[in-house]
Amino acid sequence: MKPVNLVLNILWVVFCGFWMAVGYLVAALIGFVLIVTIPFGIASLRLAGYALWPFGRTTVPKPTAGVGSMIGNVVWVIVAGWWLAIGHLVTSVPLFLSIIGIPFGWANLKMIPISLMPLGTEVVSAEEAERTPAGGPQRW
């Protein structure tokens, strides 16, 4: 990991990453309690780690994702996605009001699409995304 990414990740955890990760963990617990929604719980756990430590990593589309992921994303948006997207939006506002928080506010806004549609994507390191031809659009 690059030293700059380490510093950015530590600041991110202090300013907003911890609470956003807690939101994803709550969504994961709800997903695991309802047996049918275990795939949502798994996706939410993956995003909790990403929300906690995002710099140096990115999201890329899964080549094996199909119609099931699309249908699951529709259900996800209704059940948990919009709550998490609102959390990212609300968290970004105070970050934009401070000078040091502006980059973190933008990072929060960039996480809104993945919070709305987590199925059919995976979190990979930025180096791995550069090596693959299908590198994701949400590069940090």
Structure summarized in a few sentences:
This protein is mostly helical. It has helices at 3-33, 38-52, 67-97, 102-110, 112-116, 126-131, and strands at residues 57-61, 121-125. α1 runs antiparallel to α2.
Written description of the protein model:
- It contains 6 helices and 2 strands.
- It has one domain.
- It has a two-stranded antiparallel ribbon.
- Helix content is 69%, strand content 7%.
- Helix 1 packs antiparallel against helix 2, helix 1 crosses helix 3 and helix 3 runs antiparallel to helix 4.
- The two termini are 13 Å apart.
- It is mainly α and 140 residues long.
Percent of residues in helices: 55-70%
What is the averaged pLDDT score?
A: 89
Listing every helix as H and every strand as E from the N terminus to the C terminus, the arrangement reads HHEHHHEH
Shape: globular
Measured on Cα atoms, how large is the radius of gyration?
A: 15 Å
How far the N terminus sits from the C terminus, by CA atoms, comes to: 13 Å
Largest sheet: 2 strands, antiparallel
- Spans of at least 5 consecutive residues whose pLDDT stays below 50 are none
Keywords: Membrane, Transmembrane, Transmembrane helix
Pfam family, one: YccF
Organism: Streptomyces chilikensis
Protein name: YccF domain-containing protein
Question: Tags for this entry?
Answer:
140 residues, mainly alpha, two-stranded antiparallel sheet, 69% helix, globular
